[in-house]
Amino acid sequence: MHTTIDEAPDALTAAEVWLGEGRKVALATVIETWGSAPRPVGSQLVIDSDGNFLGSVSGGCVEGAVITEAQDVIAENQPRILEFGVADETAWRVGLSCGGRIRVYVERLS
């Protein structure tokens, strides 16, 4: 049985439930922002190995890229720091519509 948004009001609660169900899970956390980033430091997104997710690190601007990276983190069990913004090489692929920049730490949970 998969947890729905109504059953898990936040990313950490969903992570606990999903881990209890035997899913492989990663947690993405905003660790730094510049300018007008859409989510504050501490905002979180939980992702399972199937790409299910709950939470937000950017209000929808870069979640797709974070989910893809999180699936790699789950498979490799190697945390990483991601950086997104309009002034880096990812600006043409993904970007923050508000013009800010964010750094996101992605780690596998056990």
Automatic annotation (TrEMBL):
Domain XdhC- CoxI stretches: 18-85
Highest taxon listed in the record's lineage: Bacteria
PANTHER family in alphabetical order: ALDEHYDE OXIDOREDUCTASE MOLYBDENUM COFACTOR ASSEMBLY PROTEIN, MOLYBDENUM COFACTOR INSERTION CHAPERONE PAOD
Official protein name in the record: XdhC family protein
